[in-house]
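Anyone else keep sequences and structure tokens together like this?

Example one:
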Amino acid sequence: MIAFIIHNMAPIMFMSLVVFLLLGYPVAFALAANGLLFALIGIEFGLFQPEFLQALPERVYGVMNNDTLLAIPFFTFMGLVLERSGMAEDLLDTIGQLFGPIRGGLAYAVIFVGALLAATTGVVAASVISMGLISLPIMLRYGYDRRLASGVIAASGTLAQIIPPSLVLIVMADQLGRSVGDMYNGAFVPGLVLAALYAGYIFLVSTIWPSAAPALPAEAQTLRDDDGQTRRFSLLVMTVVAGVVGYAVIKELGIKPGADFVVLTMTVGVVTAFILTVLHNALGLKLLSRMATQVVFVMVPPLGLIFLVLGTIFIGLATPTEGGAMGAACAIILAVMKRRLSFDLLRQATESTAKLSAFVLFILVGARVFSLTFYGVDGHKWVEELLVALPGGQVGFLIFVNILVFILAFFLDFFELAFIIVPLIGPVADKLGIDLIWFGVMLAVNMQTSFMHPPFGFALFYLRSVAPKLPYLDKITSRKMEPVTTEQIYWGAVPFVVIQMIMVALVLLFPQMVMHYKSGGHSLDDKKTMEQFQNLGTPDTEAPAIDFGVAPKIQ
């Protein structure tokens, strides 16, 4: 028995961790306790050198000294302030009116606003709860199928996990030892494609089953055009002019096609449309409808924030940490402009940010304890030998890893997957010659399913907390409405989990969706800046690397 334990210490240690997690122990404490327990067992059997434990304080300090992780509280705070300042409500109301006249219009609006909220908040909980509170009652009021309505809200909220500035991408970049800016750049296109796939599913459902996603009735279209073709034509002309101006300006600046090109073109286009709308109103013209004016004005704040955060990161003016700090400051300014900033709002946002940041930090410290022991008993060699020996080379490895992550997502959330699984499989992917940015984005898309998996998906829990549990009277129509059952929420999530797995396959089959980040020309990140600082004044010798507690080391 002892010989068996000695020979299989690494797999036994890993399986023990899985058992601890399934028993419901807190992740951070399960990781740390498992690491310390097997360190003592390893010392007793002569498999683990006691000197390894002397490196533990340095590894914990490496977590505390990691500047990249500062972006997590900044982006979390930004998202919470924006969610409580009413930006999501304004967006959903206006975009819902814009798309409302067509079948499935409210669902399209939820997807569109979900993508915008993802690009400004980066927090899944804030997006799902906001859209659940605002959109779900309206969709139920006008006859949407409950499964479709709940599924599209939960899925659109999880776009915050893949569209920058995603917290998942920050953690993924940290664990893989790569630039957060490059990870953001590489994930931008897959995030937009995933949103388009959601919209394609809504189009399919509304075409085959029109009663599941009806259009808004005329009496509900409070911002509809009154003057017909002239105003619609003027809006079309303004949109085309704004798009052409945006494209021309960004092209003239010499920015190559990529995520930064798209973000900056959209931003310049919206600013142009905003200026044209202001001039239109100042001159007293009546070419644009209330709808057109409202759409332009409601789109300026989020797209301005997207440029401030993502645009500055993509073009190399700011690190992700600096971008997050600017975003948090801008969110406070927007709340002041909406006259919704209060001490209570700041207190709630600060407390929630502190809780999430502490949660992430403690998991990371526990993961450092676990990985120290796991590496000390040669667990990394066991994982490497196991995965490298898979048939099919790179393709076989990628298929196996994606299936493994998909299955584990039923039981673990994305933080647990990122801190436990990614450090084990990242070095193997690097050894096989797989680009780690592409690999990280693929895993991030896969990990989205952890939010949508019945019965433990967190997005489903968030939606369940705000969806009506009992029959209620609708405030507008005074009709008695049936509740949304947990079963309906779960079944509504299934088609979107399938779409997410299709997106994983698309990233695997068309790597250029991610690999375009290499041609972006701009890359600025906290760790790269630190490396440049280390190498100052040492042109002929390589400076010793500072240990950030990241494996593998930055190349």
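And example two:
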Amino acid sequence: MPDPQSALEPLFRAAISKAFGDQHAATDPLIRPAQNDKFGDYQANVAMSLAKAVGAKPRDVATKIIEALDWKNVFAEPPTIAGPGFINIKLDRAFLEQTLAAAAGDERLGVPRAADPQTVVVDYSGPNVAKEMHVGHLRSSVIGDAIARVLDFEGHTVVRQNHLGDWGTQFGMLIEYMASMVNAGDETKINDLNAFYQQAKARFDADPTFAEAARKRVVLLQSGDAYSVGAWTRIVELSKRHFNSAYQPLGVKLSDADIRAESFYNPRLADTVAELEELGLTKVSDGAICVFPPGFAAENGEPLPLIIRKSDGGYLYATTDLAALRFRVRDLHADRIIYVTDSRQKQHFAMVFKTAELAGWTAGVKLEHVPFGSVLGEDGKPFKTRSGETVKLADLLNEAEERALKVVTDKSPELPTEQRQEVAHAVGIGAIKYADLANDRIKDYVFSWERMLSFDGNTAPYLQNAVVRIRSIFRKAATQNIKFDPAAPITLADPAERSLALRILQFPGVVNQVAQSLEPHRLCTYLYELASLYHGFYERCPVLTAPDGATRSSRLALSALTERVLKQGLDLLGIGVVDRM
């Protein structure tokens, strides 16, 4: 059975077509959940936007839409008009109860599988080899993982791609420094990626002889020199182990099989440039081969170039991104390609996408850049350690679990040590991820331990605690020998029950919104509102001490369904739940 919103949409589209013509029926979305239930359960604001187009007053437009509605056998009371032209809809109680029963009996909670499943490539995380992951990698990893999970749940074929930075001139410096460390018998320091990189860079900057050897080493690497390739491979493997040590506790679904690093595309760069030249899309500017995609200009008004080969014959990030895009379309057969990177790369990807379009590579393929803002400290500046250094991601995750363990110990000292540690992991990691995902991704957000670990407000601990509260009801029921029937009829006699039921039934629509908008904060907001409604229901409607057995069974079933939606929604965000906390 469809969710109410998607069921109402075609009725209103048909009415608009009948009253004003097909050209006006494409407004999306037509139906939204009402913000205030005293006006109804759902609301159509389309009369406001149509009024100007059809040259009529909004209330008159709303009246004509209602008159054109085919309201026979509809699962709602006849719509009413409020204010300047809002159309309010109140659903039948019987329909709500039937739809809840259908959702409860569905392992997917009413979320339909995509009618037209696509192959979707999601490019996210993308750290650089020989450098430790830091807080700046958190957003791409967490946001990208949530988007991939949602699309996967909808039934699309999701191809995760971790575009590691593992190629370039800096590797000549690193390999040469590794060789000097091996010769000096000081090879163990290679395991400290940050120190290794910083020491190599310092020597490169201070020692001209070393710098020249490093430049020659780049040529050796590119020509396949056995020692250079072996050293490069070792650096890459060490880096991959470090990345996995962050992905595993973070719960990010990226493995070595998802890695397609810059080096993978290196053999494809010359051919990519050659194809763009053959298509007549390139121009030579100061010896460099460039594409000048229309619509992009420098500050002085001159056309802005996308440089794809430097005057010395070297390639750039743009070349690699174009080769990757072409590979994803032609070899991975992508229908949709999503790039999750910080907002500073917005223009870069816009130019890459336009170039690919001009080359004819992307016909029928949807390209999307998912930009995000920065993580700020409580001083409003980029989040740093007290000494002013970039915060390492591993240190951040460790601190999250330590802080969460203190919170859990203070809250539930009776829990065994091992269980408190398990809860601390779920709460600490969940708190970090949720704080990131709950904000509109395009905006910067302030990193605050106190706020994200709070059990009040829009936080992961608040949502996890809602699950714990529901599960505690069922534990108590078991001790009282109260039987629970998952298929028990749900009756919505109390307004708090009705409000909770409505929010549960909006879950499929929210999942679809996230899949389309690629904005995980919409799901976070939904889950927070659902948990808040459950707390209100819990206070108003006794469950185990309900006035009669039928009411108790109904409220237990409604509680179980709420728990399932909260758990599934948190799982789509990559956040775990616990039984006690």
